[in-house]
Design goal:
heterodimer, A: 173 residues, DNA polymerase, domain 1, 5 strands, 32% helix, globular, B: 906 residues, 9-stranded mixed β-sheet, 22 helices, 35 strands, 25% strand, disordered N terminus, 2Fe-2S-bd (chain A), oxidoreductase activity, acting on the aldehyde or oxo group of donors (chain A), 2Fe-2S_ferredoxin-like_sf (chain A), 2 iron, 2 sulfur cluster binding (chain A), Beta-grasp_dom_sf (chain A)
């Protein structure tokens, strides 16, 4: 077993571990080691997107949605990871969280953190590179179109994300 | 037929005490990230005024990633549990046609070897019992020397100290051809048999008469093939006559078609693979379990039963069950076998154990939707009226019976679709095969039989040259007409749905658009289907308690589970009808408190026993909350109002208010008002009720089969009639409860669930247009209209969300989802979402699916269960659209590009 000294930033806090299995998947580390179970496990083969978290190379860099179920810890060393637990701040819920609530976007809720983090990375992209309003639907499909939801038929997730994109200043040209 | 143990879940099993409650003992945690993992109370702003929710009452914990699902919990999270846990890998067989020789873990690296292993020999030595009378073989772990009963049958329990090692071992074992097992030579495949009992529904209603000559209503269920009773023999006479009628269709001027329709195995594919925790505390001989389940009462009972035998060497005196929110259910977590393996795993460890399926295991072990074949004959006369129908339904139940016979019953009940047919012969049977066990997956039984009916109706329409919707319109049932059992329970809305669809742009333009697409890359077609389905079981029981504290905060406690369908939210807003305010807390998944009702159950009526009820409790069904449990909550609220808050109000209003009755009062902005009197806010009433010893908690049991049991209850000097069969109250200042005996009860009983005639039905239809790529054969949804007759709507957002989910799942069944039933299917342990295609957002026509929700047919229309019927018309509507587009009739689901191309090739 190859081991590494793990050192990365998780939800704004430094996480360090010595001699940890380099091949351990991020989702397992989060859930089983740290007890941070907001990031979910479903297929384990990077199809369903339930385990999506956001990754940035350094603080302030582009946020990229990745699948934690197939991302080994060796790939996130030194980087900045945001999970659903990191979305709230002192002002309360993230606008995406509030919109998901207000739109009854989820039912069982198991796929919710994945949709949140996929949409979170989308917002970051649009902040840096706003798009015309007519391109929003395609951008949402690009961001979360591969995510699986079994309960709600996607309608209310898309509605909520669209609402946040359009209501957030600076995302749409 | 008497029901199996599944419907009779007692609170004790052979002396073992049983307890069910939600997760309430979370260990407090510290630390910035971990602190957020603690449980949270619902935020106060979830409400949008009395009777309405701004968002789901369980929404905040889900949207913030708090620990919610069984998979989120470790033993260390639970108060009173040891910190350390074992993680147990359940080995399963990938083959079912070879003799099992034993484990073969030699190729597993030393570091991945289990620290201990439990096999069938251990269970036999310790006299582990059989929990289910539907699996008399009782081989919960496959013994060496036997051919597996079914693919994916469990073989051994492998114990590990931690998740990571178990998970690596799991992957390594999966990569082995025989997955760590040793088998002998190939054996003949065991012949298929039928699970008993089989379902027959025979209906005969002579022409021009309103009298039913023969029906289930008219004397109970029949088994013509058994010929045990005169009615069975009479029924067989009708079977013969209907066969003769169909055979002589031509002479009668009828057009009759004989067709076979098939549907596939479906995995419910709820998002959270099953997992759970168990711990046998040997000091107290208490088995603790934590599972996200639809059927906690089944789980806890089954777990208790395997240790209940007199010779059993595992000491268990009590089972304490903690119910977690399920990460999706769709019926796949109803009477799942996971509970047994958790119990067994715990029995052989000194520490808590965790079983935590990955998706490959879930496909291998999780319950499936029954694959089906319907051999259907249907006759229509020259006046476009359906005359006779014979539907022989075969459902692949897999290796354990589970609830397959009930699925067959439901398939039969819905075996004529939403039509009035004078002569009906339905024979619905579940097969015992080597397939993965099939369960009660969403809209079970009805999806299969109504795909056949609704495809057949289109074929008949084409055969006689009439518009398919017009043919349906001429035959759909009117509200209150007899369904195929003879019960007068047809839902409203069927004719209206036909009329609306016929007038819709999609239908009116279908031929023009079909013709216009002739020269393009894609063929275009439009199809329609209309369906109905029973909701509930026909014998439904609800347990609810509503309590109010001195500050006016309302708490609902119930045995129902929220699978994501919104039960908790719906019950929270249900209190507003009588109490003018929503509940601030809903405790789902409780069973223990309701022991206060001291109920005794049997399907034989005990009129002199005030504790008797036909059924104490049942598993949670998505289609039941809005109708059954809401009724219970509203009845409890009515008790609380009449016996707690109104007496308090009279006292506060003072002299002259003694005569104010329930009929005189109303809620205005959270205050109780009566003409000429000052409105009193709810908290003031609650405080008065507590101080003066009025009723502050009402706990009820209600039973429904076509109607509710009702009775008079006297509290203090007042007697009220409520639609409940048991009542217990707690008064202000008291800690104990008082049982209120029912009087003048309008009792009844039923023979069993599903075979009674107390089912309520809901209606749903779908108009769909598709395109079919002429080169690839790929079918894409173009547009759709989804019609629903829900009756009273409790919360529009929850209803629409369910409907959207139904549409997606129906589309998956029509076009995408498929898994072989046998050797190359999920049982081989190699299936996951790379091979099993569930609909994505791009598949479901986002923004192009119109919902038409019919208004309630009356002011007192019931809230109908819709979470199952909502998906049933989707597959046949799409199949009919594909037939219109391609000119080829598809009688087998799913309609894949390969099948379309093959059909085009001829």
């Amino acid at each position: 077993m190859d081991t590494i000294d793990l050192d990365f930033t998780l939800n704004g806090e430094r996480v360090s571990r010595s001699g940890i299995d380099a091949d351990m998947m991020l989702v397992d580390f989060l859930r089983e080691d740290l007890g941070l179970t907001g990031t979910k496990f479903c297929c384990g083969i990077a199809v369903c997107r339930v385990c999506t978290v956001s990754l940035a190379r350094v603080p302030g860099a582009h946020e990229v949605a990745i699948r934690a179920c197939t991302t080994p810890l060796s790939d996130i060393n030194g980087q900045v990871v945001t999970t659903v637990e990191g979305l709230e701040d002192d002002n309360g819920l993230h606008p995406l969280q509030q919109a998901f609530l207000d739109n009854f976007s989820f039912q069982c809720g198991y796929c919710c953190p994945g949709f949140l983090m996929g949409a979170y990375a989308l917002l970051d992209r649009l902040k840096r590179q706003p798009i015309p309003a007519e391109a929003v639907d395609a951008a949402i499909a690009d961001a979360v179109g591969e995510h699986i939801c079994r309960c709600t038929g996607y309608v209310r997730y898309y509605r909520a994300i669209r609402q946040v994109v359009l209501d957030t200043p600076g995302l749409v040209t | 037929m008497k029901t199996t143990r599944r419907e009779f879940l007692a609170t004790t099993v052979a002396g073992l005490a049983i307890s069910v409650s939600p997760i309430h003992l979370l260990r407090p945690v510290a630390g910035s990230n971990e602190a957020k993992a603690a449980t949270v109370a619902p935020p106060p702003d979830w409400q949008a005024g009395p009777g309405k929710a701004r968002f789901r009452i369980d929404g905040l914990r889900k949207v913030t990633g708090r620990k919610t699902y069984a998979r989120d919990f470790h033993a260390r999270d639970l108060e009173g549990w040891p910190d350390e846990q074992d993680v147990v890998l359940v080995m399963r067989t990938p083959v079912a046609n070879r003799t099992f020789h034993g484990l073969d873990l030699g190729r597993l690296p030393q570091a991945l070897q289990p620290k201990s292993t439990i096999t069938a020999e251990d269970l036999a030595r310790d006299h582990i019992g059989i929990a289910e009378d539907d699996y008399p073989e009782g081989d919960y772990l496959l013994p060496a020397g036997k051919v597996p009963d079914y693919l994916g049958q469990e073989v051994a329990l492998l114990y590990y100290d931690d998740f990571f090692t178990m998970d690596k071992a799991r992957r390594a074992i999966r990569s082995d051809v025989l997955q760590g097992l040793s088998f002998g030579e190939e054996m003949p495949i065991r012949p298929e048999t039928y699970y008993q009992p089989e379902t027959s529904i025979i209906h005969a209603e002579p022409e021009n008469g309103d009298e039913q000559t023969f029906s289930q209503v008219g004397g109970g269920p029949v088994r013509p093939e058994e010929a045990r009773t005169p009615r069975d023999i009479e029924a067989m006479g009708w079977v013969d006559r209907i066969r003769e009628m169909i055979a002589s269709s031509e002479e009668r001027g009828w057009t009759t078609l004989h067709r076979t329709y098939e549907t596939q195995v479906i995995d419910p594919m709820f998002m959270e693979p099953e997992s759970g925790l168990a711990w046998l505390d040997r000091e107290t001989a208490t088995l603790h379990m934590l599972i996200g389940t639809q059927s906690p009462s089944y789980d806890v009972t089954a777990a208790a039963e395997i240790f209940a035998g007199p010779l059993c060497r595992i000491g268990v005196r009590k089972v304490n069950f903690l119910a977690a929110y399920p990460g999706g259910g769709f019926g796949g977590r109803d009477t799942s076998i996971l509970c047994l393996f958790l119990a067994l795993a715990a029995a052989y460890s000194d520490r808590p154990v965790q079983i935590i399926n990955d998706r490959f295991e879930q496909f291998q072990a999780g319950m499936k939707r029954h694959a089906s074949r319907c051999d259907l004959s249907m006759a229509v006369d020259k006046d476009r009226k359906f005359r006779a129908l014979r539907n022989y339904i075969y459902l692949n139940g897999g290796g354990r019976r589970n609830v397959s016979t009930f699925v067959a019953q439901v398939s039969g009940i819905n075996g004529t679709g939403p039509y009035g047919v004078p002569y009906v012969d339905i024979w619905s049977r579940a097969l015992k095969t080597r397939a993965i066990t099939a369960g009660s997956i969403r809209a079970f039984g009805a999806v299969q039989s109504q795909f056949a009916i609704e495809t057949m109706v289109d074929e008949l329409a084409a055969e006689i040259g009439v518009d398919p919707i017009a043919l349906r319109r001429a035959n759909v049932l009117l509200e209150g007409e007899a369904v195929d059992t003879g019960a007068p329970n047809a839902p409203p809305g069927l004719p209206e749905m036909c009329d609306r669809a016929a007038a819709h742009r999609l239908w009116r333009e279908r031929d023009a658009r079909h013709a216009a697409a002739a020269g393009s890359d894609v063929a275009y077609g439009v199809g329609f289907a209309i369906t109905m389905k029973n909701y509930g079981t026909g014998a439904d029981a609800a347990l609810d308690e509503v309590a109010i504290d001195p500050d006016g905060r309302i708490t609902v406690t119930t045995n129902v589970i929220d699978m994501g369908n919104g039960s908790a939210t719906t019950l929270a807003i249900a209190t507003a009808t009588h109490l003018g305010a929503n509940a601030t807390e809903v405790k789902t998944g409780y069973l223990d408190p309701f022991e206060a009702l001291q109920l005794e159950q049997s399907f034989e009526m005990q009129p002199d026993n005030p504790r008797w009820t036909p059924l104490i409790h049942e598993s949670t069904k998505a289609s039941s909350t809005s109708s059954k449990w809401v009724h219970g909550v509203e009845q409890a609220c009515s008790v609380l109002l009449a016996s707690g808050l109104l007496p308090a109000a009279r006292e506060l209003w003072g002299a002259g208010a003694e005569g104010v009755s329930v009929a005189d009062i109303r809620w205005e902005d959270g205050a109780l008002a009566a003409d000429g009197r000052q409105a009193i806010p709810l908290p003031a009433l609650a405080r008065q009720a507590h101080e003066k010893g009025h009723v502050v908690s009402a706990m009820i049991h209600a039973f429904y089969s076509g109607r509710w049991i009702e009775a008079d209850y006297t509290i203090g000097a007042e007697t009220h009639r409520w639609q409940i069969d048991a009542l217990s109250v707690r008064r202000g200042g008291q800690t104990g409860r008082d049982l209120i005996d029912r009087k003048n009860a309008k009792l009844f009983t039923v023979e069993s669930t599903y075979e009674g005639n107390g089912q309520s039905f809901g209606a749903c239809a779908c108009l769909a247009s598709v395109t079919v790529n002429r080169r690839t054969g790929e079918v894409r949804l173009d547009e759709a209209v989804h019609y629903l007759g829900p009756g009273k709507v409790r919360q529009q957002d929850l209803l629409e969300g369910q409907l959207d989910g139904c549409f997606a799942m129906g589309l998956g069944q029509a076009l995408l989802e498929d898994i072989p039933a046998y050797e190359d299917g999920g049982g081989d342990g190699l299936w996951n979402l790379h091979r099993y295609n569930v609909p994505l957002a791009r598949d479901v026509g986002l923004g192009r699916v119109e919902k038409v929700i019919l208004p309630p047919e009356s002011d007192d229309a019931p809230a109908r269960g819709i979470a199952e019927v909502g998906m049933i018309p989707i597959p046949p509507a799409i199949a009919n659209a594909v037939a219109h587009a391609t000119g080829v009739r598809f009688r087998q689901l799913p309609i894949t590009p390969e099948r379309v191309r093959a059909a085009w090739r001829g």
